[in-house]
Amino acid sequence: MNEELHSSANSAGTTSADEATEPCKSVLQKQGAYGKVPIHKHSKFGQLARISEVYALAKFVAKGQVADNMQNQIPYKDDDIKFCDDILGKVSRSFAAVIRQLPEGLCVEILVFYLVLRGLDTIEDDMEAFVGREKFKLDHLRNFYKTPFSQEGWSMDGVGQGDEKVLLQNFFKVVRVFKGLSLESQEIISDITQRMGEGMALFAGRNLTQGTHDIKDYNLYCHYVAGLVGEGLSRLFSSSSFESPEVTQSAKTLGNTMGLFLQKTNITRDYLEDLRDGRTFYPQEIWKRYSKTGDLSEFAESKYQENALQCLNHMVTDALGCVPECLKYMELLKNKQVFRFCAIPQVMAIATLADLYNNPKVFTGVVKIRKGLAVKLLNETQSEEALHKQFNHFARQILSSIPQGDQNSSKTKEICENIISLTNLKANLYGNSTEVQLLLSGTPIAIALAANWIGVFYASLLMVAFVLFIRMASLI
């Protein structure tokens, strides 16, 4: 890097605090290998063919669907909280929406928790700033829970790119909001940050060009970078009295699994990004079963596509193993806003896994789910019945996609059928989505008008075809 790595208690390198709030447009908006590999999006025709998703997109554009409770917070006029809210939307559009809809008394706590861990994650993810000075990176990871919080005006420059860099340059603002939280919230955030930093340092000091060692090692990494988040969130939910003590009691078990499910989905999707970044997490215990050359990078070559897909399907199947415990955790949540906060990332994850399964594009870029599908999931996931409907649907989609001869077919089939069994009852209670019901309610009028032109018999056939079409659209 041309810029010098700089950590200061008084300044942000050569950039003033005010200047740093505006990201430089010439740099990448995300760090690591993001932007260096192709993004595989679905075609516009594929999107337009799904009526329910198009409806969800139009509805979302017109008036949005997620409440923003951040501005209702008593201290929102504070410039530091405004900065935190603004940078949240820049470093994570997806999590910004679900954080902002949380109730007062929890919204700011989760906002700060996310930004603190995002700052830590930015240090871990930067593979250029510490070249030749790896020890400094490990020191920063291990001490991030205390150094920025004990030194007045602490900031860091030269680490991260785009908005993540801006976050670290202005981290003292996050610290000031942190110090306004309850002592219990501060203790929880500090504890999780310390343990996560220690775990990240363990893996950051290793050669991960060929992935983690085995599944146990893989699970341990996912625990440090995501399972601990699930634990910390569970403790914050209970300490704020929005959820029962039972949620905290499950923090290190079910809460941990919630995080593992999201992280395993990301790692499975980000094969090529991580490979280009020189640090991968596919466990050798899995990928070496399908390797011809003993090198993880071979899966990016088209001649090894069949083996690559076998490996990918194994990774997806491993991630799906988290679902039963995730569903158990979701049953514990009683607050509607907390439920949505947890549920939306979960349904996005299983939708992503369904898109990744047996998909060769994973090895040539980053696979993204349709925007319309993402918005539809965001809109609809407001109850346990809706959550179960989505898990049920995507488990069926994966089940129907299992290729003949896949080495993990029996295991994948077993897990999918278990998910379907666990979710069938509540999924059926949810029924059709609201927009599909609206479309169906207009069908008799349209058919009656059509009968005047084409006759009752053909109009009846048209009605049956239309109902079947709408029914299929609601399942896509």
UniProtKB/TrEMBL annotation:
A Gene Ontology cellular-component term: endoplasmic reticulum membrane
Its EC number(s): 2.5.1.21
InterPro entries cross-referenced by the UniProt entry: Isoprenoid_synthase_dom_sf, Squ/phyt_synthse, Squal_synth-like, Squalene/phytoene_synthase_CS, Trans_IPPS_euk-type, Trans_IPPS_HH
CDD domains assigned to the protein according to its UniProt record, in alphabetical order: Trans_IPPS_HH (cd00683)
Segments crossing the lipid bilayer: 445-470
The keyword Cell cycle is assigned to this record: no
Annotated spans, Disordered: 1-22
Biased composition (Polar residues): 7-18
Name of the protein this chain belongs to: Squalene synthase
